[in-house]
Amino acid sequence: MDSSRFSPISWKEGILTLLDQRVLPGKKSFLNLETVDDTVTCIREMAVRGAPAIAITGVFGLALGARAQSGNVDKTDVENLIAKVFASRPTAVNLSFALKEAKKRVEQVLSWEDHYKIWKAYAVEMMQKDLSDNLRLGKNGVSLFSKSQKEFHVITHCNTGALATAGHGTALGVIRSLRDAGNKVVVYADETRPFLQGSRLTAFEMMEEGIECHIITDGMSGWLMNHKKIDAVLVGCDRVAANGDTANKIGTYNLAIVAKEHSVPFYVCATRDSFDLSLEDGRKIPIEMRKEEEVTVFDFLKNGKGELYLQPGTTSPAGARALNPSFDVTPHKFISSFITEFGCFLPGEIGSRLS
After folding, report:
1. pLDDT-derived band at 238, boundaries 50, 70, 90
2. Does residue 62 sit in the same domain as residue 168?
3. Does some domain include residue 115?
4. Quick check: 2 pLDDT over 50?
5. Is there a binding annotation on residue 182?
6. Which of 130, 238, 276, 328 is catalytic?
7. Is 49 annotated as a binding residue?
8. What is the pLDDT of residue 311?
9. Which Gene3D superfamilies does the UniProt entry name for this protein (predicted)?
10. What is the pTM assigned to this prediction?
11. Are residues 15 and 90 in the same domain?
């Protein structure tokens, strides 16, 4: 897989095509979208996921929504269209920033046709910039690893690669860049319950790249750090507050605490659009709550004859309740460094670096 070209998103002749990440790694299936409602559904149902990819898809969704209209715009209709896309996944700040910029770019534009052209061009621009930013981020991340060492063992959480971005990736982008610099990298990928982005998607990307990867359960990182030399934990993020508190896939906070206990560097990989300086700390970051069924339903429990121990797809007692927050917030004190396209820095340096 060419990580600099591989992307879950493409646009050709007015059709938005997404790689359906819900069915990976079993098969590669592509979805052709022609309406904003299709786009919103794919974001909400996680056919496309990862903060950068969501933002790009969201702006393409605006373009599709504009194309379905004719004549001059009504400002209320524009605001409703933007609100519909924003509601698809509220935690990732990239989408919020992208929609604000999209709105700004059409403030003086009267026709729906011009809205379509401007938003389509902006989405293409976002794709190109995200890939460029990720390549620079990966190079910056390499600088944090010892030049005298040629083999590195890292733990990842969720999926932060080409599938989550316009290409190369953030945390997985650092891993790719380490490999491209001539190092051997061994990846331990948290399975990332309940949606299994680590075991389904990160392992898929690493196997496509020929990078050694071992899937671990989300509760295994403490044992792993206690029994093997782990050089770093590399994660992405969906939103970073002004003080460095970081929202990322549920389970990131736990992983940061375990890394701190074992003196393993914990690196958050993020591009500029993931930093939200309007929030003083992580307490104000909205946390998306998803369907309980994602926690209570599964279908791998079978006996030696291949017969299901439970009813198809169920791992919990009938009627069992579940909590399913999609993200958690890691306090800045557990973060060793941010790795970005404009350098590496401590949480306390966010204000000066982004001013």
Report:
1. very high
2. no
3. yes
4. no
5. no
6. 238
7. yes
8. 61
9. translation initiation factor eif-2b, domain 1, Translation initiation factor eif-2b, domain 2
10. 0.88
11. yes
